[in-house]
Design goal:
Elements: H1 2-13, H2 15-27, H3 38-41, E1 65-70, E2 78-81, E3 87-90, E4 94-97, H4 103-114, E5 123-129, E6 134-137, E7 145-148
Antiparallel strand pairs: 1-2, 1-5, 3-4, 6-7
Helix pairs in contact: 1-2
Amino acid sequence: MKAVALLLILGLTNPFSCLAAQNANDDGAQQNAAGVNAEQNDSAPIPAVQHHVSSPDDLIGADDSISITCLESEDLNKTWRVSSTGDINLPLVGQIHAAGLTADELTQKLAEDLKRYIREPHVTVYIAEFRSQPVTVTGAVHRPGHFQIEGPKTL
């Protein structure tokens, strides 16, 4: 009887702790649906996000990282962060507005600008990291915060 009264009081103050106490009393170390003990569930790691392979339709945005490879220029061969204004500042070429372009469009633009210095530039651009469209999760959820969702986004 005391246990029921205690569970009732706990349930009124915090319904989730009441359920956790009831489950712990029912089966001791009973596991939940994910196969983790109730005590371990709060400290469970967030599952790793699968990386999105950029598609030809993906647009470059502010704060994204792009990787540039140019066979004729070692100075360009690295990953560059797009500024918050959407620009990148590259050797030889200078400042280029990259936001709103696809990787293929930026490749063509870079190749055209590099023709002033290189006879036939071989340039490849791909989006290495998406950071331009964060999603905010708020409310009564287990882990609120800002998250970067890669790939197509729909509501």
